[in-house]
Specification:
There is one protein chain. The protein is of the alpha/beta class and 277 residues long. It is 29% helix and 33% strand. The longest helix has 13 residues. The radius of gyration is 21 Å and the shape is elongated. The two termini are 35 Å apart. The relative contact order is 0.17. InterPro entries: ACT-like_dom_sf, ACT_dom, Preph_deHydtase, Preph_deHydtase_CS.
Length: 277
């Protein structure tokens, strides 16, 4: 029997849905934190970890870019999950009965408009599915949970309002992490390579480091910066590019990057998800 995919949250979390979408035949293992999910793979309890990295409405997931380089794991796949948010309540509850709704702070921010229109106050929970579990145990018909349809099914809650997210294209991107890289595949929709690096603390170092991608025709789809170790002078950059390190133009661009930077680390090369198109 294959080992499960570890994810953060309770059963029914959006990360759980991402596991089902990408690997429907594999069991999913709920974990308390992102670190616990990563440790489950390191210890051999799980074969893979599913980690959310960014949401189209809320932006990047806090701390995840710091965790990825330190995890020792490698990105082997990506999946984009359309995030549908339901207002869930105990059986027999009406929408007008709900005065408070509980969910993760990120999800609360994705349906502010709906909550304001209905005069529903927000309560921050540990996570989305955990909030649904809490509501199922309270017996309180004035308390709802904002969570996935899957969480409603698992915890026996009724959908009082469906698809209440403010943005109709609300989507979260997840990365599937493994103990070893897989450089052998070639995706039908192209390849993505993710890496981190630190720019030298000299004038125009970032400009020079990235110049090789432009001159070699390599498309960079993401570039984000964050501080390293609380220093205001040491900045680490997280980047996604289209292509495989074995491609001649990518190899040339990466060589030029290494010349002007320090601590370049490729986190993974993996097939681009069809949703990118």
């Amino acid at each position: 029997m294959s080992k499960p995919i570890a994810f953060q949250g309770e059963p029914g979390a959006y990360s759980h849905q991402a596991c089902r979408k990408l690997r429907p035949e594999t069991e999913a293992l709920p974990c308390r934190t992102f670190e616990d999910a990563i440790d489950a793979v390191r210890s051999g309890t799980a074969s893979l970890a599913m980690l959310p990295v960014e949401n189209s409405t809320y932006g990047r997931v806090a701390d995840i870019h710091t965790l990825l380089p330190e995890s020792g794991l490698h990105i082997v796949d990506e999946v984009f999950l359309r995030v549908h948010i339901n207002l869930l309540g105990l059986p027999g509850t009406r929408l007008e009965d709900i005065t408070h709704a509980m969910s993760h702070t990120v999800l609360l921010g994705q349906c502010k408009g709906f909550l304001a229109r209905h005069g529903i106050h927000r309560i921050t929970g540990a996570d989305t599915a955990g909030s649904a579990l809490h509501v199922s145990q309270t017996g309180d018909h004035s308390l709802g949970a904002l969570a996935s349809p899957l969480a409603g099914e698992i915890y026996g809650l009724e959908a009082l309002a469906e698809h209440i997210e403010d943005n109709s294209n609300n989507t979260t991107r997840f990365l599937l992490m493994a103990p070893e890289p897989d450089m052998s595949r070639r995706g039908g929709d192209g390849m993505i390579t993710t890496f981190v690096f630190e720019a030298r603390n000299i004038p125009a170092s970032l400009y020079k480091a990235l110049g090789g991608f432009a001159t070699n025709g390599v498309n960079m789809t993401k570039l984000e910066s964050y501080m390293v170790g609380g220093s205001f002078t040491a900045t680490r950059f997280y980047a996604d590019i289209e292509g495989h390190p074995d491609d001649p133009n990518v190899r040339l661009a990466m060589d030029e990057l290494a010349y002007f930077t320090t601590n370049v680390a490729v986190l993974g090369t993996y097939p681009a998800a069809p949703e990118r198109q």
